[in-house]
TrEMBL record:
This is Cation/H+ exchanger domain-containing protein. The lineage of its organism: Eukaryota, Viridiplantae, Streptophyta, Embryophyta, Tracheophyta. It is a multi-pass membrane protein. It comes from Musa troglodytarum (fe'i banana). Residues 42-302 form the Cation/H+ exchanger transmembrane domain. Residues 365-489 form the Cation/H(+) antiporter central domain. One of its GO terms (biological process) is proton transmembrane transport. It is found in: Membrane; Plastid, Chloroplast envelope. The chain crosses the membrane at residues 109-131, 143-167, 187-210, 222-246, 289-311. It comes from the Eukaryota.
Length: 647
């Protein structure tokens, strides 16, 4: 509300003239703009932040589920509710005061509030009753959808009858609808097509028709009006920056937050729609309407550009230290983020949790992030189900995915710690939830599932899971493991009391292969894990360099550390050409449970050059893509493709 209060005095600086009406009353008019009272409406428009508009623009910028994006959505909601309250209550009080005095105004206001609150309580109970009657995973009945649509029209009539705007009550009713499936999602599916593909283009067509640049005869006042609006946007940014200066927090992020709150769109334009039925037509000239529309477009364009330039939610400038598995101490707690879209990879991930913790000295901390598609709601959210006091919270948002990992924690108490999270966001920006959580928790490893294309799972969910991976690989603040799995009935977590797991490691050399070998070193300490490491030695001449020296040193160190370990077998395979390499890869035993390989092999090999043009999924690398192909569809093993951070 600060920009609104600051802008009001500036409206008096515009030169106005008095005109007499037919009823002998006088009005003040600014030539080329309209009545002086219009500055109150323009100041309100500039100071407002519409949550639906903000959500749409943040989604386009892929910033909806970032820290500042969520904060901007919360701030805009508070801003909009405050604006609704003031501009809804004030006309009622003013009208009642003129008719019945102070006592009558208070009585009428109280009566109106009681009626409105009662209606909305009944609406809320009705919505929740519809949700309870809908079976889990089922669809809402068409009768309920029709009744909700009719209720929206009734709310508009009631809102207008009580002196509010015809849009106010339906907007508040929208806030009462339980978000997500089943009801919120069903309403979006029914209404989105006609509203976005039919009604919205017609509305903007009307805006373009009403924006008549030929009506501008006095450009100077309109330029001052644009500066008036610009001043309001600048004040909003300064208001956002002021608390940051006081608390010595990031001024840059505060300025970006202020710029986000300057986004304008449908809500701002509809407040000044040049329609014969619109009351503002009486106070705003056609030329002034053009200036308002131009000001809204310019402010949104500049703010969007500056936000995209100034804000990088996954910037690693503040990171300290290394985020790789190679730099973990032997008995340091192994922390990782596991992202899950559906239940398919859960059994394999549970096995990875088990093999990663040999004893209390090799404990595991798993941040389990269940990704849920944003639907039937405007804002994304990241829900933590465990607070700093180790108490599980937000239990209503937890599901079987979280419970599976929590059960493992109970069985492995003191060795495994699970922190469950739920991220609700669009598929296009889910990678930001994964990377930001990894950055916040300072973990050295992220695991993202990659469903096989012939796994038989949900095509939409599996395609979404595969589309996330390239973004995670390019923006992750630590090493990444891509878990290639298939949703077969045989992929069950092994019983902990008789755990027997077979791992095969393919080693050529390079940063990613060394990272894979570092993870294998941790698995080798588990009593129930058998490991077979195959190092491929090309017989072609390879110039000895620093990378080759590192490869030899890391491999010899692994061999020496596990020389007395009967469960670890190491072999070196001499290969002369690509065909021998492929034959060696195809010779992997079907009884193997997990194959670990680096995403990119050392330079100087002809493997990449020979097979790159046949690669279907470049994010898996040449070997990973081969193991994920249909040639290995009948094999029950999973594949962990590891990319080292910064390689």
């Amino acid at each position: 509300m600060v920009p609104f209060v600051v802008l009001l005095p500036f409206g008096r600086l515009f030169k106005s003239r008095e005109y007499a009406r037919e009823d002998k009353s006088t009005i003040s008019v600014v030539d080329g703009i309209g009545q002086t009272s219009v500055f109150i409406d323009i100041a309100a428009t500039v100071s407002a932040s519409s949550p639906p508009v903000l959500a749409d623009i943040l989604t386009e910028l892929r910033l909806l589920n970032t820290e500042l994006g969520r904060l901007a959505m919360s701030a805009s909601m508070v801003n909009e509710l405050t604006r609704w309250t003031i501009f809804a209550v004030f006309p009622v009080v003013q009208l009642s005061w003129d008719k019945n005095g102070v006592i009558g105004a208070l009585l009428e206001l109280g009566t109106s509030l009681v009626i409105v609150i009662s209606v909305f309580v009944m609406v809320s109970l009705w919505m929740r009753w519809i949700v309870r009657r809908t079976p889990k995973g089922g669809r809402v009945g068409e009768v309920h959808i029709l009744m909700v649509m009719l209720a929206v029209l009734a709310m508009g009539v009631m809102s207008d009858a009580f002196g509010l705007g015809f849009m106010d009550a339906p907007l508040i009713m929208g806030l009462l609808v339980p978000d997500g499936p089943p009801l919120g999602m069903a309403l979006v599916e029914r209404l989105e097509l006609i509203s976005t593909e039919v009604l919205l283009p017609v509305f903007f067509l009307g805006i373009g028709w009403a924006t008549n640049f030929a009506s501008i005869h006095h450009p100077v006042p309109l330029l001052w009006l644009l500066l008036f609006m610009l001043a309001g946007h600048v004040v909003k940014v300064l208001v956002a920056v002021a608390p940051a200066v006081y608390s010595k927090s990031s001024i840059r992020n505060a300025a970006v937050l202020g710029l986000m709150l300057n986004f304008k769109g449908l809500g701002a334009i509809s407040s000044h729609e040049a329609d014969p039925c619109c009351p503002l037509l009486q106070v705003l000239d056609p030329a002034g309407y053009v200036a308002v529309v131009v000001g809204i477009v310019i402010a949104t364009a500049i703010s969007s550009l500056l936000v995209s330039i100034l804000y990088d939610p996954l910037s690693s400038s503040g990171m300290v230290g290394y985020r790789t598995l190679q730099h973990l101490k032997p008995h340091e707690q192994f922390c990782f983020v596991a992202s899950i879209l559906n239940e398919g990879p859960v059994p394999i991930l549970l096995n990875l949790v088990e093999v990663s913790c040999a004893d209390e000295q090799s404990s595991v901390c798993a941040y389990v992030l269940h990704l849920v598609e944003l639907g039937g709601r405007a804002s994304s959210s990241l829900i933590a189900h465990r607070n700093p006091k180790d108490v599980f919270v937000n239990l209503g948002q937890m599901d079987r995915v979280h419970n599976a990992f929590i059960n493992v924690e109970k069985k492995k108490e003191g060795v495994v710690v699970v922190h469950p999270f739920t991220a609700i966001s669009p598929y296009a920006t889910m990678h930001q939830d994964i990377c930001s959580l990894a950055m916040e928790k300072k973990v050295p490893f992220i695991i993202v599932p990659f469903p096989r294309k012939d796994s038989g799972g949900s095509s939409e969910v599996d395609q979404a899971a595969r589309s996330i991976i390239p973004q995670v690989l390019s923006q992750a603040p630590c090493s990444v493991g891509v878990l290639i799995h298939q949703t077969l009935a045989s992929s069950r977590p092994l019983a902990l009391e008789r755990f027997n797991y077979c791992v095969r490691v393919l080693f050529w050399g390079g940063n990613d292969d060394r990272e894979a070998l570092a993870y294998t070193s941790r698995l080798a300490r588990h009593a129930g894990v058998r490991i077979f490491v195959s190092r491929f030695m090309p017989q072609v001449h390879r110039k000895e360099d620093k990378e080759m020296t590192w490869d030899d040193m890391i491999f010899k160190e692994f061999t020496r550390a596990n020389a007395d370990n009967e469960r670890v077998e190491v072999e070196e395979i001499a290969v002369s050409d690509v065909n021998q390499m492929i034959s060696a890869i195809r010779s992997i035993e079907m009884e193997c449970d997990l194959v670990i390989v680096g995403r990119r092999q050392c330079t100087g090999l002809s493997l990449d050059e020979a097979l790159s043009e046949w690669t279907e999924s470049p994010e898996l690398g040449v070997v990973g893509d081969m193991l994920a192909s249909s040639d290995f569809a009948n094999y029950a093993f999973s594949v962990l493709v590891i990319q080292q951070h910064g390689s």
